[in-house]
């Protein structure tokens, strides 16, 4: 029989610490922020408001994996500096995507949690490279990855020694095209039932439609997700990218409040 590199099914549940935030523990973790880091002032306002409503971590892309090469590609290093500054000012850790193995080294002293985006879940060189660090990793599901391919991707990271992996369900491509993706909550139920890794849900990319982000957030919590990552903005319609799925800060607050109520029932 094949020797397992990492045993993901037996043993204690894995908890991942990002500074003082524990993902996979008792408390549901809320991560929010814009799709892309746009400029310092906007990021600062978003960061201040999100901290004020009890969000645990900020998100925001500096290196943006856009489907079209003509779309905004992110502020790159300048974006990292902006989110780092805001995170420091409001004492709130952040997660941001790294797309290139050459950027991993500089992330080590800089980034609280590295996101591996859906398009890079199959990038085994990148998975191995982040596996050699101790930085917590948010591993998004490939948009056409089966659950086992996704778990193997996690094993690629963990086999290099980095056990700080959090899975993120962000929807898969199906024949349905009314929504941007089909949010596969079956995966969350299976992971919570059978595997040791924490899993959070991204209802923003999972739906592509801001009006159903709250509902799918609640469904995710009811399924047992350890937290949510939600795209938000002080002016959602003016978001530079993914405006259609971006919610207001007020909506994030309503999702947090409802989660607290829902948790009492499950
Ligand atoms: C993102 O979260 O910024 C993103 C690009 O999402 P995904 O990789 O899931 O498409
Ligand atoms: Mn986005």
UniProtKB/TrEMBL annotation:
<dbReference type="InterPro" id="IPR052899">
    <property type="entry name" value="Class-I_DAHP_synthase"/>
</dbReference>
<dbReference type="InterPro" id="IPR006218">
    <property type="entry name" value="DAHP1/KDSA"/>
</dbReference>
<dbReference type="InterPro" id="IPR013785">
    <property type="entry name" value="Aldolase_TIM"/>
</dbReference>
<dbReference type="InterPro" id="IPR006268">
    <property type="entry name" value="DAHP_syn_2"/>
</dbReference>
<protein>
    <submittedName>
        <fullName>3-deoxy-7-phosphoheptulonate synthase</fullName>
    </submittedName>
</protein>
<keyword id="KW-0808">Transferase</keyword>
<feature type="domain" description="DAHP synthetase I/KDSA">
    <location>
        <begin position="14"/>
        <end position="253"/>
    </location>
</feature>
<dbReference type="Pfam" id="PF00793">
    <property type="entry name" value="DAHP_synth_1"/>
</dbReference>
